[in-house]
Amino acid sequence: MNILLILGLVLFIGTIMWLYFLFITNTVTQQEPVKEVAKEPVYTDVMERCHSLYEQGLHSELQRYAQRELSKNFGDVDLRRILAQSLMETGNEEMAIMHYEALLSINSYDIETQEILARYYSENGPKSRAIEHYEQILMYDSGNINAVETLAKLYEEIQEYEKSIEMYQMILEAELDETRIVELRYILADLYLKINNTEKSFEIYEKIHHNDEENLEVLILLADLAYKNKYWQDCLKYYKKIIAIVGDDFEILEKIAHLYTTLEDWDSAIEAFKKILSLEDNSSANFLYHQNELCNAMIKSGRCKEAISLLKDLLTQNPKETSFAFTLAQAYTIMGEFQIGVNLYNKLLDELPSEQSEIIIKYISNLICAWAQDLFKKGEYNQAFDKFFEALKYNEENDEVYFQLGRCNYQIKSFQDSIAHFKRAISIKPQESMYYFGLGCAYDESGSTKLAKAAFQDAININPMNVQARIAYAISLTKELEYAQSIEQFNNVLKYIPNNSDTLYNLALAYELVGDSERAIKYYKQAIDNDLNHKEAKHNLELLLGEPYNPEAPIEYIDDEVIEEKTIAQTKETQNEEEFDFDAPLEQNNSNEDFGSMFS
Description:
Layout: H1 2-31, H2 46-55, H3 59-72, H4 77-89, H5 93-106, H6 111-124, H7 127-140, H8 145-157, H9 161-174, H10 178-194, H11 198-211, H12 216-228, H13 232-246, H14 250-262, H15 266-279, H16 287-300, H17 304-317, H18 322-334, H19 338-349, H20 354-377, H21 381-394, H22 399-411, H23 415-428, H24 433-445, H25 449-462, H26 467-479, H27 483-496, H28 501-513, H29 517-530, H30 535-545, H31 583-587
Helix pairs in contact: 2-3, 2-4, 3-4, 4-5, 5-6, 6-7, 7-8, 8-9, 9-10, 10-11, 11-12, 12-13, 13-14, 14-15, 15-16, 16-17, 16-18, 17-18, 18-19, 19-20, 20-21, 20-22, 21-22, 22-23, 22-24, 23-24, 24-25, 24-26, 25-26, 26-27, 27-28, 28-29, 29-30
C-alpha cells in the first residue's frame, strides 16, 4: 500500500515539472525568433564541388576530398588533373608531379600534361626527363617552336651539341625576323666550334659577315677560323680587311707576312716584312728575327745575292746572331756554293750548345747530300759517291742519303747496290712510300718481279695517293699474268689522273690480253684522243681494227664501265711476257715519272 502511494506521488511531481518546462519553452519561443542553420549546398557531381572548392581557395579540403574520390575511381582524369593543379599551387610539387605522371600513363597523347612535366623537369631536373617529354611533344606536334627551342637549350646544357645544332637549325629555317636569324647564327657557329667543326663555323660566320661587313669581332673570328682550316687566301683577305679598319696593327701585319710565306708569294712576303721593319723599333726583340725572315723570303724568291749582301751586313753588326749565319749558309747552298755553306755550318758547330749542334750536323749531312746529287747530275759519279759517304759521316742515320744513293745506283744500273740502299733507307724510315717505290723499281730491273710487286704494294698501302707506285704495281700484276687485278689497278689510277694516255694505253692492253676487244678499242682510242702521238696505242688499235685508224671515223664500242670478271685460265696463259712492252708506255708518260725518269 505504501509502495503504491510513493509511485503515485512521483508520477504527480513529474507531471507538474513537465507542464512547467513546456510553459517556459513556449514563452521563450514567443519572445525570440529561431535562427536558421546554414545548410551545405547540394552538388550535382564530384567535379562541381572540386571546382567550387578550388575557386574558394579551399585547397586542403579540396585535396582531401579529391584523394578520397580518386580511391573510388582511379581513372578519373579530370579529378586527378584538378588535384595535381591544387597540389602544385600549394607547393606540394612532388605529389603534383606524381599525379601528372599518372595522367600521362593514362593518356600518353596528353600534350598539356607533357608540357607541364617538361617545364618542371627543365627547371628542377633531371634534364634527361625534360628532354624525354619535349621529344614526345615534338612527335605529336612537330611545329611546336617553343618546344624545339627549349630542347635545343637542354641539349646544349648536357653537351649533346650535335642534337642542339639540329634543333637550332630547325628554328633558323622557320625564323623570319632578321635580328633573330643573326642571333641564331651566332649560336650555331659557337656550337660548331664546340664540336671542332671549324669549317661549318667558318661558313656561318661568313653569312654573318655578309650582312655586317664592318663587324670587327666577326672579321677576327673569320681570320682565325680560316687559319685553323688552312684557308690561306681567305685568311689573308680577312686580315687585310681588319687592317683597313684598324690601321697598321703590328701583330696583324706580322700574320699577313707569314701568310705570304705560307702561300710562297715571296715578293709579297718581302714587301710585308719590309713594312713591319719600317714600323718596328730596331731595338725590339723581334727586329732581328724579322730581318732574318726578310732574307729567307729573298732567298726563296731567287734574290740570293741581295740576301747574302744583307746577311753579311747583319752579321757584321750582330756577330753572335747565329740565325743569320744559318740563313747565309742556305743562300750559298741554293747558289751552288756548297763548300761555303758547309764551312759556315761547321763554324756554327763551335758556337752553339750541343742540342743545337745536333740539328746543324743534320743540316750539314743534307747539304752534302744535295751537293752529291748536283755532282751526279753533272756526270761526276766518283765525286758524287764520295760526297754521299761524306754526308753519312755526319749523320749515319740519314735516310735521305741512302735513298739518293739508291736512286744514283739505279741510274748507273748497279741494281744490287740500289736495292741495298733502298732497304737501308726503309729500315730508318719505314713509313716513307717513295722508298718502297724505289725498291720496287730496283727489284723490277733486276728481274725480281714478285719482290717488285710486293714493294709497290707496300708503297700503295702506306700512301694510296702514290700514283707512280699504283702504275708500277699494275704493270707488275700484268707481268705476273694477273690481268683482272691489273685492270682494277689501272682503273684506280684513272681516278687520280683520268686523262693519262699511258694509263689508258696500259688499261687497253690489259683488256686486250683478256680477250675483251671492245673495251681495248675504247681505251686505245681514249689514249690517242689525249695524245695524238701515242704510237703504241695507235699501232695496237689498228691491229684490232684490221685497218688504218681514222680519228674522224666513228668506232662502236661498249660504254660500260663495270669490270667483268674474267677467268684468267681461259685467257692467254700461254702468252709470254715479251708480248707486252712494259717500258714503252712509261717512257712516254708526261704526267708521272717512270722508273727511269724518277731517278734522273
